[in-house]
Amino acid sequence: MDDSQNRIVQTAVRVRGFDAQHIADFSVGGVARQLFTELIEGIATVQSLAAAQLAGIGDAHQSARSRNEARLALRQAIDAIFRIARIMGLESQFQKLAGHSDEDLINTATSYATHALPLKAQFIAHEMPADFIEDLNDNVATLRASIATQGDAVGDHVEATATLDTAVDGLVENIRKQDGFMKNKYANNPGVLAEWISASHIERAPRRKSKAIEPPPPKTSGQ
After folding, report:
1. Which domain holds residue 127?
2. Is residue 179 part of a domain?
3. b/e 49-58 (16+ beta carbons within 10 angstroms → b)
4. What pLDDT is recorded for position 218?
């Protein structure tokens, strides 16, 4: 949640406390008590969604790290094959990686695996590991999986954020509805009315103070 949403939730919690304290003033089965119940449920929903959003942010960061690690491993595998291919005079079959995207990396690795297969014995004779092609294919699969995982994590985070926004808006709407009948209910009870106004007030974000412009230094004689 951002700061604005946190302030709304804090207000909703205060209103929940006010409602609990004054619930006896309202008829059983009436709209007021229905709104009280909806507010309690809304706060619980927002708190649950906020936890999911936070977890989604963590998952997105972790998946980004995993993708970076998979990208680095695949690039290192490609570079190792290229170095041996150059020694063997096979640069035409093993073009050096030209692009910078993950798809360029995957396409290059796939091409290397295809061209290296009939030459596997020669590569091994040049001190490449016996399973270097298998390792290359595994690295490709790992990068593809990490791309998909990151996409899912980002999607989950975006969805959780959108759902959270809607739930927080629901809290604001609930408080707005309560405000109308609270002001009628306690119109002749200034003490309780003041308590309601204090509880239901949503604070605005503090404004940043603008830096004062310093006046120019006074001119000295002779200037």
Report:
1. 3-200
2. yes
3. bbebbeebbe
4. 57
CA-to-CA distance for 63 and 147, rounded, in angstroms?
8
pLDDT in tens, the chain (223 residues): 788 889 999 999 999 999 999 999 999 989 999 999 999 999 999 988 888 777 777 777 888 888 899 999 999 999 999 999 999 999 888 988 777 899 999 999 999 999 999 999 999 999 999 999 999 999 999 999 988 887 777 777 777 788 889 999 999 999 999 999 899 999 999 999 999 999 999 877 555 554 544 555 555 555 4
Would residue 214 count as lying in a domain?
Answer: no
Residue 73, burial from CB neighbour count under 10 angstroms (0-12, 13-18, 19+): middle
Asked if residue 217 is part of any domain, the answer here is no
Instruction: With CA atoms as reference, report the closest residue to 150 among 61, 39, 22, 46.
Output: 61
Interatomic CA distance for residues 44 and 90, integer angstroms: 64
94 touches 112 (CB < 8 A):
yes
